[in-house]
Write a structure and sequence with these properties.
The chain is mostly beta strands. 13% of the residues lie in helices and 45% in strands. It has a 22-stranded antiparallel beta barrel. Strands 10-15-16-13-14 form a five-stranded mixed beta sheet.
Length: 943
């Protein structure tokens, strides 16, 4: 029996050796340059079996197929060639022609179906692995800024925010970022944290970016634009590749600091059925120090510093926003009998702020990021009819986020897990996104509560008033009395760097109770399902697609961000869409129509239609004209609805109906007069007060208070019009690609955050009064509260009634000159219209320069194995508006450059480059660290 089994096993083994052992070898060359083309893909048609050319353009492929069969030979940026294999040991030699222009590249995202950029019905930008290899930026994500119409706002070294067509913020909830079909947004923050959980540059297949509203296909969050990052498949790109990058960041405030950025990718195809890959990336560096200590008042810069302004509030100094009127303090002390009768009359009615701490004392600026990604791919039939994918991503690191305050995101952890069934005409996928805020904290409350740990506010201001009175009674001038008062009140102040300070600091950042700590907790999640079916195999009169999605949020911050004090908040939304695409007039005219319906838990459903026409003119169809119309909408984010957060200068309260009574402010100290009116020294307000009992900020500042009229937030809508033109114009041996677009957007119910002033007592309709005026006259209590300084600021999440529109244009030119030099130039115009008089309290936050010009010049192979690339970007000044601060950002010119050298014998590319080589530091927004220069050298193997 054993002999029979051994004989059968031997027979099977020999049979497997004899089965279809077909070997093909050959060389792939670059038809334009004449040399070898490394990294070209060679695969059996419709199968996963394949290989890549080495640095000499050579390959050897052994397959189990028996001739005849077809090989597909391709490379990014080149035209695909097919070769018929008719015998074993066949030797092939092919030359791939480079695409004439970038307009010949194939994209998917514009219509959810493959098409050339030239034929796309809407504006689209593309950044592939070739562009990544040639970018002069320190990372591929930074390199996206060289695309036309694209803005990148730098929050910190490790957190960049991508935006298009205006209304930029670091919390960019208007722009969507998908990585392999998964929304990369933080579940709690509702926006993508740059590339912290994105792709390694070794694993990027392509990046496609759609500027403008894309709600008709991709849902409510794709309001300003959407970016798709696609990774390489282990069926198509196998082997081990590695990159190590190191260099310096240079900034006046931080000095010169080393950084390291390294990645490895491993991918293997086991057979026609199974493949797997894994990537690991690690970055370590030093953040850009934020050292803007200019004085501020009501969100604007004002004159003065700590020495000259007793109410100084430095932009990157925290704790000094704690301020009070010292005459009110004197009145309280006098009422308690601590100060002698009449003492309050000697104290001026002025506001004084506590002495704060600089941001550099409150964080270590340690930039760190580690990412791991792994995926398993299974094809049950050994071809692309069906592929089942399990994909997991993990990210951990430190970064800085600037919202209403500056937050140090420390030891942040985020993970995503996806199961996807994908075929040629369909996909179904579900994924989970989960996060843990780790040891993250709010720098403003860190400073506030360090101050409170060594001396609470009541004691500090009491000692200040006592010191002032003592100095005045001793004959000191007003200025000298204030100096003496601060010295007395600051007695015992914790000094940064001392053990006492460090102990207090560690205690504060580890405590999530904002009355004594600054840590914020978060373990929120997103659960998402979506599916798409292309009916092409069943319908031939047009290409029809249908699809839908469902998403559930689980908000779980333990009351440190949301009002989830008593348990997680669940919130869901869903959408359905269809698209029809049809060609007419000998396929010259392409019609695309789509419509999507979306429904969120707290809001009525919305339809988003899109219609576009694209016409290919000219004898060779190289002139493409396009026009599109669509309406889009944006649901309020989970923060807009459920936030309940004290940020020091204001209370943030979401406007979901079930949120208004879940949030109450901490106890707020009243003035002496206010305490007498209320009958208590402190009081608290419910979140409902922001919407139902508040004055508009503008009216209070103007001295004529009126009710704010802040309404509960509802979805925002946009109507978008766009026309464009693309062409590849022959210019001798090359072609000049032209890509022009013009757009106009009209907004309705623009979602906004408005500052409102809520009195701590009294009704804003002035219906309740008290006999507290001269001679016992009746005075509305709400006006008395404003007069006594007994009011607080809320950020109300609402919609603006103003008419708002934005419009702009982009044009991009690209060609080759002088035997292969790449030259590109693009220009972007961005403007918006807003009648401020129609809504004085609304800040639109367009936050985008009106004019931008970008220029690129380079050569992939200037001489054998040597290439270079230079990028120059200029933009004019613009106003940045946010809840953190408003300021004009200066115009700037940025120069990036790199040179690279290939060593085929060791399959390596060495690159030396730098960003912002002029050394002129600049800001992306007020409050962030000034961006200096970054110099790097990298070694890439087998990519």
């Amino acid at each position: 029996m054993i002999k029979k089994l051994l004989l059968a096993a031997f027979t099977l083994f020999c049979s497997s050796l004899m089965m279809g052992q077909t070997t093909v070898s050959g060389t792939v060359n670059d038809a334009t340059l004449g040399g070898p083309l490394p990294g070209a893909d060679i695969k059996v048609s419709r199968k996963a079996v394949g290989t890549n050319t080495d640095f000499d353009g050579k390959f050897t492929l052994t397959v189990t197929d028996t001739p005849p069969f077809t090989l597909e030979i391709s490379s990014l940026g080149y035209q695909t060639v097919t070769v018929e294999i008719t015998k074993n040991n066949q030797v092939v030699e092919v030359s791939l022609k480079e695409n004439a222009t970038a307009l010949d590249e194939v994209v998917i995202s514009a219509s959810r179906t493959p098409e050339r950029v030239m034929e796309s019905p809407v504006t689209i930008e593309r950044f592939d692995s070739r562009a990544i290899k040639n970018t002069s930026a320190p990372s591929f994500y930074d390199g996206l800024e060289n695309l036309k119409g694209v803005d990148i706002n730098t929050n910190s070294l490790t957190f960049k925010s991508v935006n298009t067509r205006g209304f930029a913020t670091f919390a960019n909830t208007r722009f969507m970022q998908l990585v392999d079909g998964m929304d990369n947004s933080s579940p709690a923050l509702n926006f993508a944290l740059g590339n912290l959980l994105g792709l390694s540059e070794l694993d990027v297949k392509s990046v496609e970016l759609l500027p403008g509203a894309s709600s008709a296909l991709y849902g409510a969050n794709a309001f300003n634009g959407i970016m798709f990052m696609r990774s390489k498949s282990p069926f198509d790109d196998q082997g081990i590749s590695f990159v190590f990058k190191t260099g310096l960041t240079s900034q006046e405030a931080a000095g010169n600091n080393e950084f390291y950025d390294t990645s490895i990718r491993m991918a293997h195809t086991f057979d026609d059925y199974f493949a797997a890959k894994a990537t690991l990336s690690y970055l370590k560096g030093t953040e850009w120090f934020a050292t803007d200590y200019r004085n501020t008042l009501n969100g604007e810069y004002v004159a003065g510093d700590r020495d000259s302004d007793i109410n100084y509030d430095g932009l990157n100094t925290y704790g000094d926003e704690v301020s009070t009127n010292i005459r009110g303090v004197a009145q309280v002390l006098e009422g308690l009998g601590v100060a002698p009768a009449g003492a309050a009359a000697l104290v001026p009615s002025v506001n004084v702020s506590r002495t704060g701490y600089e941001e550099r004392d409150l964080m270590d600026y340690d930039a760190r990021s580690m990412k791991f990604g792994g995926s398993l791919h299974y094809r049950p039939w050994g071809n692309d009819r069906l592929e089942i994918i399990w994909n997991s991503k993990f990210g951990r690191g430190n970064t800085i986020y600037q919202g209403a305050n500056r937050y140090y995101i420390k030891d942040f952890f985020m993970e995503q897990h996806k199961l996807e069934f994908r075929g040629k005409y369909f996909f179904v996928r579900g994924y989970l996104t989960a996060e843990d805020a780790g040891n993250s904290y709010d720098t403003r409350f860190t400073a506030i509560n360090i101050n409170n740990s060594w001396k609470d506010n009541n004691t500090w201001f009491g000692e200040y008033v006592g010191g002032y009175l003592g100095a005045i009674l001793g004959g000191a001038t007003n200025d000298a009395a204030h100096i003496a008062a601060r010295n007395i009140a600051d007695t015992g102040r914790l000094v940064p760097g001392t053990s006492a300070f460090n102990n207090a600091f560690n205690n504060v950042i580890s405590n999530p109770d904002l009355s004594v700590g600054s840590k914020f907790q978060d373990e929120s999640q997103i659960r998402h399902l979506d599916a798409n079916l292309n009916l092409a195999p069943y319908i031939d009169f047009a290409e029809v697609q249908v699809g839908g999605s469902y998403r559930e949020y689980k908000l779980n911050s333990n009351g440190t961000i949301y009002t989830d004090f008593d348990g997680p908040i669940f919130y869901d939304e869903y959408g359905l869409y269809t698209q029809v695409q049809k060609k007419f007039m000998d396929d010259r005219l392409k019609f695309t129509g789509s419509v999507r319906y979306d429904k969120a838990q707290n809001f009525d459903g919305n339809f988003s239609p899109r219609v576009s026409l694209a016409y290919a003119g000219g004898e060779t169809r190289n002139h493409n004209f396009r026009a599109s119309f669509q309406t889009g909408f944006r649901n309020p984010t989970t923060q807009d609805q459920y936030i309940g957060l004290d940020v020091g200068r204001a209370f943030l309260v979401g406007s979901a109906p079930d949120n208004l009574d879940r949030y109450n402010t901490p106890q707020i100290t009243l003035s002496g007069n206010g305490a007498a009116i209320v009958g208590a020294p402190t009081t608290s307000l419910p979140g409902r007060a922001a919407y139902e009992n508040s004055f508009s900020l503008e009216s209070v500042l103007a001295g004529a208070p009126v009710a704010s009229g802040a309404t509960l937030v509802k979805p925002e809508k946009v109507t978008a019009f766009e026309v464009g033109y693309r062409s590849a114009i022959p210019t001798g041996d090359n072609k000049l690609s032209v890509d022009l677009s013009v757009y106009y957007n009209e907004y309705e119910d623009f979602i906004s955050v408005e500052n409102v002033i809520a009195p701590l007592y009294g009704n804003v309709d002035l219906s309740d009064t008290a006999p507290i005026g001269p001679g016992g006259t009746q005075v509305p209590l709400a006006l008395a509260a404003l007069s006594n300084g007994d009011s607080t600021v809320f950020n109300a999440y609402t919609n603006s009634s103003a008419d708002i529109s934005s419009y702009g244009a982009t044009i991009g030119l690209n060609t080759k000159v002088f035997n292969g030099f790449n030259v590109a130039l693009n220009y972007t115009l961005s403007k918006f219209d807003f009648d401020r008089s129609s809504d004085p309290d609304f800040e639109p936050g367009f936050n985008t320069p009106e004019h931008k010009v970008k220029f690129q010049f380079g050569h992939n192979n200037l001489f054998e194995n040597f290439g270079f690339n230079v990028n120059v970007r200029w933009q004019d000044e613009y106003l940045w508006e946010s809840t953190f601060h408003d300021a004009v950002i200066d115009a700037r010119t940025i120069l990036d450059a790199q040179v690279n050298y290939k060593i085929p014998s060791i399959k390596s590319v060495f690159k030396v480059g730098g960003a912002n080589l002029t050394g002129q530091e600049y800001l992306s927004a007020p409050g962030v660290g000034a961006i200096g220069s970054q110099y790097y050298i990298s070694w890439t193997i087998n990519n």
